[in-house]
Amino acid sequence: MAIFFCLKCWREIAENQTVCQICGADKAKLSEQSLLAKLIRSLRHRKPETPIRAAYVLGKLKAVEAVTDLIEIASSSPDPYIRATAIEALGNIRGARVQQFVKSLWYTSLTVIGKKMPPTKQQNTFASIELIQ
Ligand SMILES: [Zn+2]
How far apart are the C-alpha atoms of 120 and 125, rounded to whole Å? Predict the structure, then answer.
């Protein structure tokens, strides 16, 4: 059986429900929105594989529109895999804001998959990101 989610708050809703009972979003109106808007909203989906997939696709699309949300996810998601995918997507999108964000990681600490990288590793990562800009 397929599970349906509200496209705004990502809570489970019944297939035949037209308005989300939790956030009040109109299912029909939301499904008319662009794929890009849906992908950006998917970054906050409750099931971790969805934000990972969304971030991956947004990176492939080089979606500049997603930079703000990807930076937010990359710096605040409690899931290290989501953070890592968001950072990877930002690396594909690039641009001045992404570079600024990468520099902020360098000046604070780079926590990607659960543990902090030693300073030399950080430096190498930063250097390699600088090279591809
Ligand atoms: Zn909702």
Answer: 9
Ligand 1 center–CA 62 separation, angstroms = 28
Cα 72 to averaged position of ligand 1 atoms, centre (Å)? 21
The mean pLDDT value for 105-131 works out to 51
pLDDT 10s digits, 40-81: 999 999 999 999 999 999 999 999 999 999 999 999 999 999
Q: Rounded CA gap, 59 and 48, in Å?
A: 17
The confidence score (pLDDT) of residue 18 equals 87
Q: How confident is residue 15, by pLDDT bands cut at 50, 70 and 90? A: confident
Cα–Cα distance for residue pair 13/65, rounded to 1 Å: 28
Show me where the domains of the chain are located.
Answer: 1-33, 35-132
- Report the CATH number of the 35-132 domain: 1.25.10.10
Report the separation in Å between the CA atom of 90 and the middle of ligand 1, taken as the mean of its atom positions: 28
Residue 111's beta-bridge partner residues?
116
